[in-house]
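Pasting two entries for a bug report.
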Amino acid sequence: MTSHITASLTAAAVAALLALQVHAQTTASMVDSHIAVAKAAAGTEHVALFEAICGPAPGSPPVGVGIHRVPGRATWHAEPVKVFDNLYYVGEKEDSAWAVVTTEGIIIIDTVWPYSVNDEIVGGLKKLGFDPGRIKYAIVSHAYIDHIGGARFLQDTYGTRIVMSAADWDFTEKSRGLLPAIKPKRDVVVADGDKLTLGDTTLSIHLTPGQTPGTISLLVPVKDGGRPHLVATWGGTSFNFELTPANFQTYIDSAVKYQDIVAKSGADVLLSNHTICDVSHTKLRAMASRKDRDPHPYVIGNDSVQRYVKVAEECARANLLRLAASGRSGSLK
């Protein structure tokens, strides 16, 4: 009797182990399938994005991460660059900031760090021949310090209106990773589908929560020698948030939604808030030597813009499966 029970228990344990192995193999196969789709979508244009986010997600940084010391200027400073007739790069070597110049003033997209905003955005605009006092709005794509860091300075110095979603205003006010002195005062709150018009330019605002609860992605009309183009900005890229199934699903849903927006809009330019992701570190140099009839390095076509967001979606799907297989949250590294 005892030997029969022992044999039965042993058989059950073996069966359970085999089931777990089969499940693990199935999950690994599904992860590989999403990685393969992401790699195919990346093609040759979006390899940097694929390599940056398709590995195991890092999860949230430790609480209290902020500016412990100001890095040397040589490590982050970049010169401003005219990219389109009405769009200028005023960001750092790694963290992007863009200036949309209109007939009634300037809209800044992302505000870099507290220590670099005066050098890059203010100084950059002056070098380009613009008055930083004409910065009317600053849109924060998502409320992490490398994008919101300079917002309070612009708000206090120039009366710039700071634009975020309600969810990211809440996120900012509750954040323990942002010092109170650099948190902007709650200002313009935008909702999904809102428009921001300044002078002759109207930006379309789309909420794409994921990297933060209220991440913003945009559509921005630009011109190159008078020829119209449409910029799409994917507002939040990395998986450096609390790793939960719900958060990954939110990210995935936003990516699917934004791909449809991009497809219907015909956007043919893709901008990121990190130079490595949209290869701005290479494209900005190419702008310096570009001749009038040369192809524009940032104009990549609507299919390529859609594929960029597809890479983000599929890498998120792969990491959601990794999270489920790990049975835990936090970091998948």
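Entry 2 (this is the one that rendered wrong in the viewer):
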Amino acid sequence: MEFTSAIGKRMTVTAAILGVALSFAGCGGGSSANPQNNTATASNPNPSNPTTPSAITATLTATPATIQAGQSVTLTWSTTNATSVTINGLGTVSASGSQTVTPAQNVTYTITASGLSGSTQMASTTVTVQTTSTPGNTKTNGIPRSSHVVLVIEENHMFSEVYPSGMPWLSSMGNSYAFATNYHANEPGSALDYFWLSSGNGEQAFGCSGAGCTQPITSNNIFRELSAAGMTWKVYADSLPSVGYMGGDTGAYVDRHNPARWYSDVINNHALQQNIVPFTQFAADLAADRLPAYSIIIPDVNHDAHNGTVGQADAWLQANVAPLLKAPSFQAGGDGLLIVTYDECDGAVGACNQQVFTVMIGPNVKRGFQSSTFYQHQSTLRTILDALTIRNYPGASASAPDMADFFK
């Protein structure tokens, strides 16, 4: 009996302990029959994760999506949760907005919205540009359309130092095609004249001098207009150390002779910076028939008559630029246009009358022609834009005369 009683007591105590354990397990309305549910609740008391970045969205539309050449389109976009927004041809833009563009050819615009986590969202829209005439018959303000315009800028010499004997090859091209006898640079200081050729202004408002600028230039410019129109451009810079180089002087390359690197459009857009390439790329692009619509050739200071002689500059042009004239676009029936000019007449001294030698070469240029009309760099800029069918004219090019007398 005592043995039985002892066992009974032990059983009673065990049952009591088990009951207490079960009561604790059931606290808060839980159930020991569903341990997985309890574990999920404890490990994730808040199903919402506040550290997860909000999704990025991006939309882009073009109205209208089909236009006639010369008409405009309104691009409209919106994004959410993006820290950086870019549109090809426009560069960095606000999170939402709209802008009018005038594409010269079919183009696809793409918006890229990026967030803090590195994630991106993209959207695209295509604009179709219809033409009513063949390219060879198209003129804008008397300037024939060109599929390839090439501008070469030389340095610091007067008209009389170049023509007729200082640069015999270039002078012979002027005699064979056309040159200006009354063309004048705008003002002393190299960079200022490069800006006149790119945005129709010396851009002193941005702290610009002959040596460059203290602030990015936000004025409208040819690089912005071409990018917005979906047209290609490149700066072929002699002695540039690498593709997309945005630094200062190095070796015989000087940044004051590279206009593109001073504009905010390029400064704020890594993709556009890739359009600034070493001059060695020119021969490769020419051989592969992939020259852009607009090319600027910038010889280095040993080859542009800045440090060397005009004779040395002439020899460099004949060896490195003359092959361009064998390209199909510069043959009979083509539409290529080569312009060679000087930035100014002396080394930013201003002691001369700024008359400089300027030549135009191409199948649509009059042969053996000399123009006595007074022109300055803004007229060259306007003529280039018209040749590329761009109808938005930056700065003084809006009111400058076209150089239409040079063309057939």
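Dev reply: Rendering is fixed now. As a check, the viewer should reflect this: The mean pLDDT is 87.
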